[in-house]
């Protein structure tokens, strides 16, 4: 079936204006997935969504001296994940559910996010290296919390619970994961989605791209038969391609999202967790979900309860 090619443009620069500062971005490359911090087994045990509890009364914003002196929060985000973090073609502003999380953190530090957020568009494989190097303060890019990543960086409490699914062409005959045998399945390099699909459907043929926009282009050009990823991301892709659909049924995996932070910056993690608690109390998390995700996911959701204990 011939499908209309929808032009998808990947963002490779950070947008200026509307309170966001420019960040020069080098020529786009597709980096290899980050190597584990060491060859030793993952040291975290128990629930990997455990994070650092904010102290009674919360962490004062004045204690985040490096960020306050700089005057803005440096955040790694996506600009091609429709509904989570994508550039509005009419306003040019990068917006979405993940961007709302960043703005809430900045507003808690500075009183307003306006003029105090520097968004840097990054790939999934960039997330951990740029936090480890100190080039970013936070990453809000639909990042799954897991034990192996805790050995490399720190995470906030879970702010959204997603799950991995599969997107296919309507009428393709692919109705379940069992039908992926011998089929090409795309996911961005550096994501758990690519590892998961190889484990769940070992006879599928893995195809990688720099991001989900790259996977969508391959899909529309006939270079892959399916795309796998979090249901939030796939819902955004399906909304852009009328010939695509997300397979129904239970999610293949649990994907708890967390805000990534440098492992040494525990104070910032505690502060972010206080912000997430405030978002639950004042209804701003629920408002963001209803605006961005509920219309496509077609289901209500509640903010995950924080789990502390580190």
TrEMBL record:
<dbReference type="InterPro" id="IPR001638">
    <property type="entry name" value="Solute-binding_3/MltF_N"/>
</dbReference>
<feature type="compositionally biased region" description="Low complexity">
    <location>
        <begin position="31"/>
        <end position="41"/>
    </location>
</feature>
<protein>
    <submittedName>
        <fullName>Glutamate ABC transporter substrate-binding protein</fullName>
    </submittedName>
</protein>
<comment type="similarity">
    <text>Belongs to the bacterial solute-binding protein 3 family.</text>
</comment>
<dbReference type="InterPro" id="IPR018313">
    <property type="entry name" value="SBP_3_CS"/>
</dbReference>
<keyword id="KW-0732">Signal</keyword>
<keyword id="KW-0813">Transport</keyword>
<feature type="region of interest" description="Disordered">
    <location>
        <begin position="31"/>
        <end position="59"/>
    </location>
</feature>
<dbReference type="Pfam" id="PF00497">
    <property type="entry name" value="SBP_bac_3"/>
</dbReference>
<dbReference type="InterPro" id="IPR051455">
    <property type="entry name" value="Bact_solute-bind_prot3"/>
</dbReference>
<feature type="domain" description="Solute-binding protein family 3/N-terminal">
    <location>
        <begin position="72"/>
        <end position="296"/>
    </location>
</feature>
<feature type="signal peptide">
    <location>
        <begin position="1"/>
        <end position="21"/>
    </location>
</feature>
């Amino acid at each position: 079936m011939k499908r209309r090619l929808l032009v998808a443009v990947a963002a490779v620069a950070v947008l200026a204006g509307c309170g966001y500062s420019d960040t020069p971005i080098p020529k786009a490359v597709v980096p290899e997935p980050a190597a584990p911090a060491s060859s030793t087994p993952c040291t975290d045990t128990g629930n990997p969504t455990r994070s650092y509890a904010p102290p009674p009364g919360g962490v004062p914003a004045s204690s985040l001296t490096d960020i306050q002196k700089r005057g803005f929060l440096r955040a790694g985000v996506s600009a091609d994940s429709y509904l989570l973090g994508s550039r509005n073609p009419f306003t040019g502003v990068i917006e979405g559910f993940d961007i709302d999380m960043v703005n809430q953190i900045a507003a808690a530090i500075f009183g307003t996010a306006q003029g105090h957020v520097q968004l840097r568009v990054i790939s999934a494989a960039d997330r951990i290296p740029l936090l480890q190097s100190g080039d970013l303060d936070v990453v809000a890019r639909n990042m799954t919390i897991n034990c192996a990543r805790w050995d490399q960086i720190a995470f906030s409490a879970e702010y959204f619970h997603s799950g991995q699914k599969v997107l296919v062409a309507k009428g393709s005959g692919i109705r379940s994961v069992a039908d992926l045998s011998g089929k090409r399945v795309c996911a961005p390099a550096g994501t758990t989605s690519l590892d998961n699909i190889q484990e769940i459907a070992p006879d599928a043929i893995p195809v990688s791209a720099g991001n989900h926009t790259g996977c969508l282009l391959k899909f529309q050009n006939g270079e892959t038969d399916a795309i796998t990823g979090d249901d939030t991301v796939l819902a955004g892709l399906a909304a852009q391609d009328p010939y695509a659909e997300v397979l129904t049924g239970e999610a293949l995996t649990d994907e708890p999202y967390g805000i990534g932070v440098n492992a040494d910056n525990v104070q910032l993690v505690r502060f972010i967790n206080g912000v997430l608690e405030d978002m639950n109390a004042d209804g701003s998390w629920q408002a963001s979900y209803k605006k961005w995700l509920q219309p496509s996911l077609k289901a209500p959701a509640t903010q995950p309860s924080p789990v502390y204990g580190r």
